Amino acid sequence: MNHADLTQYLDYLLIAMLLAVGFAIVRLRNLFAVVMLTGVYSLLCAAWFVSLDAVDVAFTEAAVGAGISTVLMLGAMLLTARESEPAGAGRHWAAFGVVAAAGAALFFAIPDMPVYGDPESPANAYVGRDYLEQVPHDISIPNVVTAVLSSYRGFDTLGEVVVVFSAALGVMLLLGFGTGARRREEGED
Amino acid sequence: MFYGISLTAILVALWLTLSGPFTLSGDYPIVMGLGVISIIVTVVLTYRMRIVDRQTVPVGPAIPLFAYWGWLGGEIVKSNLAVLRLIMKPEIEVEPRLVRVAAEQRSELGLCVFANSITLTPGTVTVDVEDDGFLVHALDNSFTDPAGFAEMGARSDTASDGKKTGDR
Amino acid sequence: MTFLTFLVAIGMAVAMAIMLARLFAGPTLYDRVLAANSFGTKTVLFLLVFSALVGRQDAIDIALLYALINFVATIAILKFFRYRSLEIALAQMSLRKALDGEYEK
Amino acid sequence: MSAAEIFQYARDAFSIGAMAVGLVFVIAGATGVMRLPDFYTRMHAAGVTDTLGAELIILGLIAQAGDWQTAAKLALVGLLLFLTSPTATHAIANAAHRAGQKPDLSHFKPKHPADAGSSEGQK
Predict the structure, then answer these.
(1) Would D71 be classed as within a structural domain?
(2) Which residue range forms the structural domain that includes residue D74?
């Protein structure tokens, strides 16, 4: 049996677990458990990305989703309650309507998507093929994605880095990491 | 100096493990250059921080430690089978115990190796470190044999600095 | 051989699902941390087996990253619950002492 | 049959054996985490997975690995798990202990499922 046939069953298992974790995140009231479940959700997502051959996305998802955002959410939990309040009963149906409509639109769009791994799909056909052919001649970097991000779109990546850095600074100022130490020192003095 | 050289050797080995074919093939000078630069920067930084010593680059203890890991592997297999027998019974029947284990290791590394070894063998977990020993939680009565702990302590002490227990 | 690797991967996924059940059930916070940590270990193993199954090495790098992140996240969560804060108080203090000593010279 | 073929078969047999036994340990550890009655006892069951189960599976994969680089990376992952798992387990146990969660030291009788629920230690 071909391994591509086998891995799709693993995909089903991973997606089933993703669904279960998603429902648990919605249902649980203990915010701490929710933070840990979002970390687990990122781990599962990244495992699924690996099986879809999107290794670089999986790398980012594991580092950002499971690593940094878990820590940031814990920092945010310092400033808020440990338990979430149950939502009012009346609001459920409107939200469900919006979610159902968005889901139906997504399902409606599925037939227009290119087949998984299709070499003729728009993402692979035009510029993508040029990149794949040009990278070995232009830059001596083995990974095409890295070459595109850090060389062909270098300024774009620089802008992204600036945005992410200032966002991280803003979050740190908001959450106030390290203020505890300052307060303790002032108390000692 | 010895520790600096061994740190460099470890970093080179790590770089080759993680990007071996690209670096060794010679087709990608950028990758090789980045590797050389990052290794040099790391070594220079650690030198400037003055943390290159026996504790951060434990090459001296590493050799007796590997021999110790061989013995520890046998212990891990034995206690794994014991725990497996306990938890695969149709009816769970365990009698957990909290016991104090005396720890008379000479060095902090020895203490650390001993505590980690206790945790690493299933059935016993170091819960707390106190002044003169560890507080150990054991899954069942059969895991709390003092002679076993004493042997593990002596061996981890020997492994951490290469001397026999007793000649301090 | 391929099929056996596939079976091991399925087994890992089943073990992950069992850990998820413990994560949902709790009942205490430490049960959840333990389950999340163990889930991470099993995800690492799943990725390793998966990389052997499809013959791609890249998944091993992801598994390495996971093993690191899993450890750091577990320690971060526990530190948070021990000190009610994310800063590493002790390390900061000793670092500051060392720096002060350095500058006085 | 040539020597290379015999080596090939031996390698495959070792790999299959190691991975199958490792799988048994991982699944047993997971069921143990589900079945054991108290947080401190569950910790031991998780340890079964982290030590022997993980290392055996990694050993089986190393035997299957085609080149030295894959084997070295797998060995690195194994070393990392070997070094970090006891630290993480100890950190969890220590945090629970310091937070005042008492281990249930009674003899767990299978007849009383009511004993299985551990005390709420969340603060």
Answers:
(1) yes
(2) 7-96
Q: Which whole-number Å values give the CA distances from C73 to A35, A70, A147, in the listed order?
A: 11, 7, 30
Query: Which D-chain residues 1-60 have CB contacts (< 8 A) with chain C?
Result: 12, 15-16, 19-20, 22-23, 26-27, 29-31, 33-34, 39, 42-43, 46, 49-50, 53-54, 57-58
Q: Is B127 on the interface with D (CB under 8 A)?
A: yes
Mean pLDDT, range B156-168, rounded to an integer: 58
Instruction: Report chain B residues whose CB lies below 8 A from the CB of A139.
Output: 30
Q: Is the CB of B31 less than 8 angstroms away from the CB of A141?
A: yes
Nearest alpha carbon to residue C31 among D24, D95, B87: D95
Q: Please answer yes or no on whether D50 and C48 come within 8 Å at the CB atom.
A: no
Residues of D within 8 A of C41 (CB-CB) are: 49-50, 54, 81, 85
Q: Report CA torsion sign: C8, C14, C20, C25.
A: negative
Which of A117 and B123 is assigned the larger pLDDT?
B123
Count of domains for chain D:
1
Alpha carbon of D46: minimum distance to chain C alpha carbons (Å): 6
**Residue that the structure tokens 């021990």 belong to:** C82
Q: Where are the domains of chain A?
A: 1-84
Chain A CB contacts of C60 below 8 Å: none
* Shortest distance, CA A59 to any CA of chain B (angstroms): 15
Q: Can you name the CATH fold of A1-84?
A: Four Helix Bundle (Hemerythrin (Met), subunit A) (1.20.120)
**Chain B touching partners, 3 or more CB pairs below 8 A:** A, D
What are the pLDDT digits (tens) for D5-48? 888 888 888 888 888 888 888 888 888 888 877 888 888 888 77
* Region of poorest pLDDT, from A47-56, A74-83, C80-89: C80-89
**Can you tell me the distance from the alpha carbon of B75 to that of B152, in angstroms, rounded to the nearest whole number?**
9
In a domain? residue D91? yes
Interface confidence (ipTM) of the complex: 0.83
Residues C42-98 have pLDDT tens digits of 989 998 988 888 877 778 888 888 888 888 888 877 877 766 655 544 455 555 555
Is residue B134 classed as helix, strand or coil in its secondary structure?
A: strand
E strand or H helix at B30, and its extent? helix B29-49
Q: Is residue D122 part of a domain?
A: no
For D7, phi and psi rounded to 5 degrees?
-60, -45
